[in-house]
Design brief:
Blueprint (H helix, E strand, L loop, with lengths): L1 E2 L1 H24 L6 H18 L4 H11 L10 H20 L6 H19 L1 E2 L8
Length: 133
């Protein structure tokens, strides 16, 4: 198993930190208007990374590896796909079994754990994977 640390760092900074901030703000300020700056940030990040990827190698890395879905576990193989789904359902089952989804902090923690797991799986390459290219 190999973890791409650079992709993990950029994913954490560009995608996971805004989700954490949005989720924490959603607890304190229960308003749908908070979603608008988050969506605008994601759209601007996608557009800028695409436009600047032609000139800057760092933006090309961000666009190709962090923003795109080429490392999506659903596209990488049946073993990875089913392990990915089973672990996500295991996290959901644990939160349902212990009644953590009944209150707002529990739902927020579940949301952040699940998104952290999803972003982390993009950065992992397993030894048995057949990498093309």
């Amino acid at each position: 198993m190999k973890i791409d640390k650079q992709m993990l760092l950029w994913t954490f900074i560009l995608l996971y930190v805004p989700i954490i901030l949005y989720s924490i703000m959603q607890i304190f300020v229960n308003s749908a208007l908070l979603f608008i700056p988050f969506v605008i940030y994601m759209i601007v990040l996608s557009i800028l990374s695409k436009v600047l990827s032609k000139n800057n190698y760092k933006m090309k890395f961000i666009y190709n590896d962090v923003i795109s879905s080429k490392n999506d576990p659903m596209n990488r193989g049946s073993i990875i796909k089913w392990i990915y789904i089973l672990i996500a359902f295991l996290i959901l089952f644990i939160f349902i079994f212990f009644d953590f989804l009944d209150d707002e902090p529990g739902r927020t923690i579940f949301y952040l754990l699940l998104f952290g797991y999803i972003f982390f799986m993009h950065c992992i390459t397993f030894n048995f994977e057949n990498k093309k290219g």
